[in-house]
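BUG: 3D viewer hangs when loading the predicted structure for this chain

Environment: internal workstation, default settings.
Expected: structure renders.
Actual: progress bar stalls at 90%.

Input used:
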Amino acid sequence: MKREKMAYKLKKELDRQRYAHTLGVEQTAREMARRFGEDEEKAALAGLLHDCAKCMPLSQMLKAAREESLNPVMKTSKALMHAVAGRCVASSVYGVTDEEVLGAIRWHTTGHAHMTRLEKIIYLADMIEPNRKPYPGLDALRALCMQDLDEAMHAALRMSLEHVQEQGKTLHPDTLAALAAYEPELTR
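Structure tokens produced before the viewer hung:
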């Protein structure tokens, strides 16, 4: 499916703010890919489709991702589940077959240990795109994202940990594994 057709379909599926966010992630991912020597088209495609399942009801997300093995926490959280469902929707509805692109969509909410450069770019682009509501540390993270991908990932994962802890919740095991790649003492 061509980009224009995907964008048209997304505009109908997503609310106005989510669609603007999606276009921001697409552009930010392209810029970051250029900066870090990643395939710009793959980054733009993953950025465009990263939230393709975001506005679905949880029951529909679970149905879309029925073939996936899911952490029990994932099954109760739309915020986490949309990434897994998004991978499936990008494949079945939008015709994406590139496993790197599908992986970047799949891991853009939790991250995981040993992320690829494309996965890191989509994870970060989602956090820093220009339409993001300001949050503490956003400007510093944006600057870091254009300097050092791994330092930016470490900072972003740290921010996620602090945000989740402030809410009195537990960090998803995949996110903890991603953070442990930068802070090995976490696994001791």
